[in-house]
């Protein structure tokens, strides 16, 4: 049985995840070595060492979620505890949270920073996948089927956005939208849902207009201004985007060489987190960018393929949620550094520096591998059972002829 289980694991997916993490580890060192010394007065390997520790811990989490049966996460008691813990953690941030980058989104424990908003992504994926899997028999009932979980998701998104962390809130909302759209309801229910969303927007719009100055702060407005024309104020609001363009443009086809980036010498802030792809483009050129994008694309497409093959509604929605999260976060990060969308401060999955993000992603990757394993294992079992049944029928037929 153990051999069958081990054979059923998707090793191509495991290899892609760890290859991307290993590559990210190298690029975290290359992009942060100057920043660590000049800005933080630390050793050049400071961020590399921390990321390596996160990766080791993330690998342990990955192994646990890859081996632990994913169906156990659908337990109602577990879901309630997880959801309640997430809400408490988000609310407590307003009292004891650590402020960084104008957002009160972290818990500071010595030198360790924990961002609960990252782990809430997985909470929402598990919760919505479990709830909508159980509501399949009445999924078209808008009041009892779709609306209650969607309302809880909106409350959580509001708590994250109020930190303020609009980037993470947007990702959580989009992940939830992907799961809801794939939950199996009919086209009529979709129209009802759109109408309900329009009514809610109309009711909320006066509150938005009254608090418009608080919502569109100068910092947020500057991101939209830099998105439209970063070169208009290249030394202030457009500073990050302009230097990102310079990094992306100077790499060319093959790049300047590993470790040879110019922009990481204080010109490009957060070069090892949000803008790590700009450094990859500068040092390794288009081939380095393609390497990362293709690996991320493979993981996302593999996740949707696993969801398509999965007969269990919970497993299928879970795989959709995880794959959507990786795809959405990748698009927002790459769109921000290339000027396609305004900057939101979102990291690149598996590559950027960040403990909370990496550990969350490794947990999600483990769950994805676990779903794939169960699918493959039961497919093998069904095929074997079918072959055995066919052989038994053939043997019975032969015996009847001999008789």
From TrEMBL:
Annotated Gene Ontology cellular component terms: cell division site; plasma membrane
Keywords: Cell cycle, Cell division, Cell membrane, Cell shape, Cell wall biogenesis/degradation, Glycosyltransferase, Membrane, Peptidoglycan synthesis, Transferase, Transmembrane, Transmembrane helix
Reactions catalysed, as given in the entry: [GlcNAc-(1->4)-Mur2Ac(oyl-L-Ala-gamma-D-Glu-L-Lys-D-Ala-D-Ala)](n)-di-trans,octa-cis-undecaprenyl diphosphate + beta-D-GlcNAc-(1->4)-Mur2Ac(oyl-L-Ala-gamma-D-Glu-L-Lys-D-Ala-D-Ala)-di-trans,octa-cis-undecaprenyl diphosphate = [GlcNAc-(1->4)-Mur2Ac(oyl-L-Ala-gamma-D-Glu-L-Lys-D-Ala-D-Ala)](n+1)-di-trans,octa-cis-undecaprenyl diphosphate + di-trans,octa-cis-undecaprenyl diphosphate + H(+)
Bilayer-spanning residue ranges: 12-32, 52-70, 82-100, 112-130, 142-162, 168-186, 193-212, 284-305, 317-341, 353-374
Its EC number(s): 2.4.99.28
GO BP terms, alphabetized: cell division; cell wall organization; peptidoglycan biosynthetic process; regulation of cell shape
Gene Ontology MF, one: lipid-linked peptidoglycan transporter activity
Keyword Aminoacyl-tRNA synthetase part of the UniProt annotation: no
Associated pathway: Cell wall biogenesis; peptidoglycan biosynthesis
Domain of life (superkingdom): Bacteria
Mode of membrane association: Multi-pass membrane protein
Functional description taken from the UniProt entry: Peptidoglycan polymerase that is essential for cell division.
Family that this chain belongs to: Belongs to the SEDS family. FtsW subfamily.
Name recorded for this polypeptide: Probable peptidoglycan glycosyltransferase FtsW
Source species taxonomy: Bacteria, Bacillati, Bacillota, Bacilli, Bacillales
Gene from which the chain derives: ftsW
């Amino acid at each position: 049985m153990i051999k069958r289980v081990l054979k059923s694991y998707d090793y191509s997916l495991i290899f892609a995840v760890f290859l991307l993490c290993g590559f990210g580890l190298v690029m975290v060192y290359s992009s942060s070595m100057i920043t660590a010394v000049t800005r933080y007065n630390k050793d050049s390997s400071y961020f590399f060492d921390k990321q390596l520790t996160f990766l080791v811990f993330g690998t342990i989490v990955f192994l646990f979620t890859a081996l632990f049966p994913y169906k156990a996460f659908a337990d109602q008691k577990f879901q309630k505890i997880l959801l309640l813990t997430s809400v408490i953690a988000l609310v407590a941030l307003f009292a004891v949270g650590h402020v960084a980058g104008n957002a009160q989104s972290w818990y500071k424990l010595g030198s360790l920073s924990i961002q609960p908003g990252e782990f809430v992504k997985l909470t929402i994926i598990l919760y919505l996948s479990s709830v909508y899997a159980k509501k399949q028999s009445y999924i078209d009932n808008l009041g009892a089927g779709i609306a209650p979980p969607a309302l809880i998701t909106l409350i959580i998104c509001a708590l994250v956005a109020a930190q303020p962390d609009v980037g993470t809130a947007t990702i959580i909302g989009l992940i939830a939208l992907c799961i809801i759209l794939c939950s199996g309801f009919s086209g009529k229910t979709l129209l009802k849902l759109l109408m309900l969303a329009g009514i809610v927007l109309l009711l909320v719009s006066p509150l938005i207009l009254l608090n418009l100055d608080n919502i569109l702060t100068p910092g947020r407005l500057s991101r939209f201004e830099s998105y439209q024309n970063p070169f208009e104020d290249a030394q202030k609001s457009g500073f990050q985007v302009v230097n990102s363009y310079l990094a992306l443009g100077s790499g060319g086809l093959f790049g300047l060489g590993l470790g040879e980036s110019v922009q990481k010498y204080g010109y490009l802030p957060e070069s090892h987190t949000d803008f790590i792809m700009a450094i990859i483009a500068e040092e390794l050129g288009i081939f380095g960018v393609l390497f990362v994008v293709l690996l991320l694309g493979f993981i996302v497409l593999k996740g949707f393929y696993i969801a398509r093959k999965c007969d269990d509604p919970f497993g299928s929605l879970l795989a959709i949620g995880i794959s959507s999260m990786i795809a959405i976060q990748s698009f927002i990060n790459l769109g921000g550094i290339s000027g396609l969308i305004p900057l939101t401060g979102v990291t690149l999955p598996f590559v950027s520096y960040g403990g909370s993000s990496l550990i969350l992603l490794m947990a999600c990757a483990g769950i994805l591998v676990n779903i794939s394993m169960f699918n493959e294992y039961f497919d093998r079992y069904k095929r074997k059972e079918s072959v055995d049944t066919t052989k038994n029928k053939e043997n019975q037929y032969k015996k009847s002829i001999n008789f």
